Amino acid sequence: MLTKLEYWAKQCPNKKAIVADQISLTYQELWQAVLIKDQTIKDSVPYIISHSRYLNQLLSFLRGLKEGSCPIILHPNISGTFQQQIKHVDGELLEKADFAVLSSGTTGKAKLFWRCLSTWTRLFDYQNKMFGMTGNSCLFLHGSFSFTGNLNLALAQLWAGGCLVLSQKLSLKTWLSLWQAKKVSHLYLLPTYLNRLLPYLTKNNMTATHLLTSSQMISQELLRHYYKKFPQLEIVIFYGASELSFITWCNGRAAVKINGLVGQPFPDVSISFKDKEIFVETPYSVEGMSQPYSVSDLGKMSPAGLILEGRQDDWVNQRGVKCHLPSLVELRSPSAKRQRSARFKDRKRRKRNPNISISFD
């Protein structure tokens, strides 16, 4: 990774590497920032990064890699107890790993994993090809680099020699301004953001040709709405986990036709099943993990690829009757009529103030 950054710094020193709101770094400036000596990094193994600003997180991470200090970017508001546990990690793992990652914590407490950089970089060329990311592309993403999807795709974009665009602000007005000024071609956003953005996007302000998103929570309805509004948009959906990296990927149009489809495995990834539980064997896993490995997802294989059918903990046994919790939640959600009414009110509000700035609090 560092060799790539040095290469781009020499080949195209004045090319934009990172834009973070008002701050802009060329590849030469990025490489010079990575080379800055910091004794505290060298003396700290593992090197714990707790910056709140995304650009500082990424620069500190790259410096930690350069110093061989096994950097780890912490989630916001992570406990002091957890930080102390990180410092007492098994020395054998530290010798094998280049950095650490955390699970998202959406299914419980965040878990700590140690990873070799090569488990990501050797897949970058393939994943960049599948995601349409090149030296000419410009990727926008939002959120902490403690989340592996953000960190992986950011490094992959820099690997390709493209431009990475970040914003600390949760403001659609700011985002649109950045997209248009920097000619953003790729968006990587969680389905939650994609859902809330959609009513405000138009053919005039939407610069992206590619939309990248994870399989979790993306609905067929949301995909249909994006394709209806932007027929030429390329949507790529991937399925993965912090400890396994990427598992499968598919085109959004295929996912519209088949509910739960997450597509074909990445190279050298094998998938098997036991009572519908998905087990994965992959060369892109974290250190110290026995395989085949399961993240407790359920599914099946079809000619079109892997189809997800929920998680084991989606089901509970109530007096001998199996209940599917997501379905129960859906039954409790507001009626379609109320949702249509809310959308109508929102359209009226936007007509009164077309320059409204949306905050995603």
Secondary structure: elements and pairs:
Blueprint: H1 2-11, E1 16-20, E2 23-26, H2 27-35, H3 39-43, E3 47-49, H4 54-67, E4 71-73, H5 80-87, H6 91-96, E5 99-102, E6 112-115, H7 118-131, E7 138-141, H8 148-160, E8 163-166, H9 172-182, E9 186-188, H10 191-197, E10 210-214, H11 220-229, E11 234-241, E12 245-251, H12 252-257, E13 261-265, E14 270-274, E15 277-281, E16 297-302, E17 305-311, E18 315-318, E19 321-324, H13 325-332, H14 336-352
Parallel strand pairs: 1-8, 3-4, 7-8, 7-9, 9-10, 10-11
Antiparallel strand pairs: 1-2, 5-6, 11-12, 12-13, 13-17, 14-15, 16-17, 18-19
Helix pairs in contact: 1-2, 2-4, 7-8
Region (Disordered): 333-361
GO molecular function, one term: phosphopantetheine binding
Enzyme class: ligase
Mind explaining what this structure looks like?
By secondary structure, the chain is an alpha/beta fold. The protein has a single domain, classed as 3-Layer(aba) Sandwich (Rossmann fold), CATH 3.40.50. It is built from 14 helices and 19 strands. It has an 11-stranded mixed sheet, with helices on both faces. A hairpin with a 2-residue loop joins strand 18 and strand 19. Helix 1 packs across helix 2 and helix 7 packs across helix 8. The chain is globular. The two termini are 34 Å apart. About 7% of the residues have low confidence. This is Long-chain-fatty-acid--CoA ligase. InterPro entries: AMP-dep_synth/lig_dom, ANL_N_sf.
